[in-house]
Amino acid sequence: MHEMDKKTFKKAYVNKFLEMHGIELKEGNKQQKYDSLASLVRDYVTRTWLKTNKKYNKTGEKQVYYFSMEFLLGRLLGDALLNMGIRDVCKEALADVNIKLEELENLEQDQALGNGGLGRLAACFLDSMASLNIPGNGCGIRYKHGFFEQKIIDGKQVEVSDDWLKEGNVWEKRKPEKAEIVKFGGEIKVSEINGHLNFTHINFEPVLAVPYDTPIVGYENEVVNTLRLWSAEAVSNEFDFSSFNRGDFLKAIEYKNSVESISQVLYPEDSFYEGKRLRLKQQYFFVSAGVQSIIRHFKKHGKDIELLDEKMAIHINDTHPTLAIPELMRILLDEEGVEWDTAWRITTNAISYTNHTILAEALEKWPVDMFKNLLPRIYMIVEEINRRYCDELCVKYPGNWDKINRMSIIGDNKVKMAHLAIVGSHSVNGVAKLHTEMLKKKEMKDFYYLYPNKFNNKTNGITHRRWLLKSNPELTKLIKDTIGDSFIRHPIDLKNFERYLNDDVVLEQLGKIKKFNKEKLANIILNNDNISIDTNSIFDVQVKRIHAYKRQILNCLRIMDLYNKLIDNPGFDIVPRTFIFGGKAAPGYYLAKNTIELINNIANKINNDCRVNEKIKVVFIQNYRVSLAEQIIPGADVSEQISTTTKEASGTSNMKFMMNGAVTVATLDGANIEIKDEVTDDNIVIFGLNADEVLNYYQNGGYKSIDIYNSDVRIKRVIDDLVNGKYHSDKEKFRSLYENLITYNDEFFVLQDFDSYLKAQDKIDTLYRDTNKWQKMCGVNIAHSGIFSSDRTIEEYATGIWGSEVIYKNL
Ligand code: 26Q
């Protein structure tokens, strides 16, 4: 938006307010002020949105559809203002009428339709696609209830349902005229007409999929793309589905409830698969609606269906949307009358797949009976895909039944979604170098030998617009003042900042900005969690989902050890530290919940012990979410990335922290490896087992946590402290954590890495004392973070997988 000035904006805003609320601005409350600001900005966005859609229709550019069960967008107002290029104008205009823009921005409910990394990645990708002029669409589910709100009560996590739509959502546009029907259950009638088999679906349960579109604003480039989320509704009575329910009142209500449950709630489990029928229903629901609407749109422009794969690409975010493969086949075969081989060519050319995890417990394998029963026609198609594919395997590996069985799509009475995704797509990628190598050499080895060309790496990224420009305006200003603003469009240019790191004035500025952000964070912690912290202490932060493999427990044990040391030796000299945790546990994940309770009890004990609480404090910030992350990350000195090596596919918060000038303490896992390669060993602190050592233990055994427990008095003491009542009046409280580490032999090598982790933390202490050196390290991290912009990642997807034309019209 070019023509906007302060005066125009102010006038428009005052008018909008009056029009919406029928009172004068000064009489309105904050919520009303937010509502009218958001509506006004939405109106501006809508104009560009229309233009973009017109342009796409005219040019017929290849469209990318990013299919994902999760989109973790967070708040949209600030982002939209920033990307429209009117955030400053808006801020000044509001200041004129005594309104603080940030205050209004903070009223917006997070759109939390995702669990964590995978969902946030999808959101960053949408932002980058729009900003790089790529015709990219999101496709997902409009959950009525997003990721739950977390309250901490008596140290325990309590889940409160997320009711994000209760005040309405100005960003979405319901499009009832674009609804699709999705069919569940029933039977398939096969008939032969003119030598052609016909498949008719009868007695199915119809579900109306209604799309809600949200604009995705590109950065100052006059592009607004679309995120389309589907909501499940009962089909109206006029819909003729033969004998279905007609006239039966109770059945009709049952039907309505059953339908509406589909888009009711986001499953709050990440990295853990449970064969829930409703989850499968969710998956087919949005995938079927999405594919149908893509084809309807394509045909509206009168194009030859056999050219479909030239005009669109579908990307599936993990295996969750894998049913896009048989669904596209179904439409091509049954509705468009395309022959199998052609349909298969179109489908595999169109589809590409990203794997986000190697945790065995996260692999989706659906029971055949459930699958068949819910999706009878789709099952037939999957069977046929499997039959043809197994025929090929038989030719390739004659007589090797073991291998063929292992690699099959259907086997052991399960449909293996990862296998279907690999076979039915032309590209399979991991999300960081190590992760991709492990897919190729271990997890998906057989498939890599079969299809070596399908496999490729796309290291994750984050949008620097939200995670630097918007979340850290002070740092952004310093960078602009030194190296200019080319880094905004070319984040790799952040490298130029390194030249300024010998300038003491710049380093001092960096220090001041960090201090400022720490003060803001300290205030938030005081307000939200009622704990006051020392902004001269090191802010040492671990925020992410609570999970055994991410090893929050390792962090806990070293704090417990440090506490012991400070008590034993009151003169023990350390730089004061504040240990900050945040993150949600899956509601059914006992160990993770127990970990949260442990952190809170350690906090309680330490923060109330006047012998140490000048030196250390522990905080668990409740309800970690995107909007909180934006406030926490700029205030962090130390970024904890301490997963058991090989377990974290990539990690993305690691990138956000470095971009905001934190120093990382990390294992050589996921993208930490690439971060280290960027900043060199001097500017990151690495510890712990490497990948080969971990894999060797898993393969050959030989790890005995009890031996470490018995040989290291520090470890013995902190482990015993878990069950001796020190941190809870109920001695048994943390028994499960203890058992895991000792009785069950510590699957994630916490005790093994303990000593080297402590040394890493000692190193941080030493480094931090040399202020100049420390600030330089922070600066190097910022300067080398450009490569982790999702713009780089998306460019790689666009050119390497989707075949989109990448055009930089705004160069
Ligand atoms: C599957 C089946 C049934 C119910 C839930 C699920 C499910 C839901 C969410 C499985 C996995 C997830 C989320 C996984 C995830 O967030 N993975 C993370 O993806 C990031 C982006 O690539 C990586 O950076 C992280 O390393 C990875 O853990």
UniProtKB/TrEMBL annotation:
| First-tier enzyme category under EC | transferase
Known EC number(s)? 2.4.1.1
Signal peptide as annotated in the record: none
Q: Show the Gene3D superfamilies listed in the entry.
A: Glycogen Phosphorylase B (3.40.50.2000)
For this UniProt record, the keywords arranged alphabetically read as follows: Carbohydrate metabolism, Glycosyltransferase, Pyridoxal phosphate, Transferase
Q: Does the keyword Iron apply?
A: no
Q: Which reaction does it catalyse?
A: [(1->4)-alpha-D-glucosyl](n) + phosphate = [(1->4)-alpha-D-glucosyl](n-1) + alpha-D-glucose 1-phosphate
Please list the cofactors this protein needs: pyridoxal 5'-phosphate
Tell me the InterPro entries matching this sequence.
Glycg_phsphrylas, Glyco_trans_35, Pyridoxal_P_attach_site
Nucleotide-binding is among the record's keywords: no
Cross-referenced NCBIfam families, in alphabetical order? P_ylase
Tell me the protein family, please: Belongs to the glycogen phosphorylase family.
Purpose: Allosteric enzyme that catalyzes the rate-limiting step in glycogen catabolism, the phosphorolytic cleavage of glycogen to produce glucose-1-phosphate, and plays a central role in maintaining cellular and organismal glucose homeostasis.
Per its record, how is this protein called by name? Answer: Alpha-1,4 glucan phosphorylase
Show the taxonomic lineage.
Bacteria, Bacillati, Bacillota, Clostridia, Eubacteriales
